[in-house]
Amino acid sequence: KKKGGIFKKKGKRSVKGEAGGVGGDFVYFKTQLIPKEHPDFEAVCKASTEALSLLHHEWGLAHTEVIIPPDGPPRLIEVNGRAHNADFLGVCTACIGYNAFQVMADAYFGGCENERSEGDRDDDDDDGAQSDDVITWEGTPRRPELLVDGAIVHLVCSVEGVVKKVDMGPIPELPSYMAHEIYESFEVGCAVEATRDIKTDGGWIHLIGETVDEDWKVIEAWMGNIWTVEKLEEG
Questions:
Q1: Of 216, 135, 234, 118, which is closest to residue 171 (Cα–Cα)?
Q2: pLDDT tens digits for range 71-128
């Protein structure tokens, strides 16, 4: 029996030419959880589960990516027998009430304690799906219920050189801000290149709450100011 674990909308675009000609064509900016009410939700669920059945994927996690074109059916991009490669554990647990690792652990071994961190549900919020302490395979719905908005912002570096300063500006004060990480290779003193794809971004921000969309606009406007660099001499 297949269950839809976590469904996310990925925001990506080309950044070539945005920083003096550097950047790439396939750069992620934001990965956001989507609710069941989203118009593409069921189409993504159906396309994903059908692809897994056709590929005879019966055990474990699967990272499945589907594109919804504006004028056609869903298009399968990839299926990987692994979890999503971003640090989504805390966001999923806070926004849905459980995460895919807990559900998988119960399917394999039975009984998984639920250690919630950010954005816990209230004790009296009883939808009949789960207890507050144990996550079970049978107790989770076939489609996840989004309790609160959540997203990961991928920090896109648009400059190249040696980092002299890292400045998060207004970001930590935003209402939905929960945490962030600047990767070690993008800290002060490191020689950095502009982000070209998901593997070369400079860190992440966790957003959880009702103001995710509004806060994202603030982050997007500030992102080009995060890194101050001294350009390397050519030759």
A1: 216
A2: 888 899 889 888 877 778 889 999 999 888 888 888 888 755 554 444 443 444 444 3
The answer for residues whose C-beta is within 8 angstroms of residue 110's C-beta and 6 or more apart is 136
Query: Which residue in 207, 92, 106 sits closest to 146, CA to CA?
Result: 92
Helix (H) or strand (E) holding 11: strand 8-13
**174 neighbors 219 (Cβ within 8 angstroms):** yes
DSSP 26-90: SEEEEEEE--TTSTTHHHHHHHHHHHHHHTT--SS--EEEEE--TTS--EEEEEESS--SSS-HH
- At 42, list the tokens: 């069921």
- Beta-bridge partner residues of 79: 64
Does an H or E element contain 130, and which?
Answer: none
| Measured distance CA(79)–CA(91) in Å, rounded | 22
Q: What is the pLDDT of residue 159?
A: 93
**pLDDT tens-digit map of 157-175:** 999 999 999 999 999 999 9
Among 198, 194, 199, 184, which residue's Cα sits nearest to residue 231?
A: 194
Q: Which two tokens stand for residue 70?
A: 């504006």
Q: Which helix (H) or strand (E) holds 209?
A: none
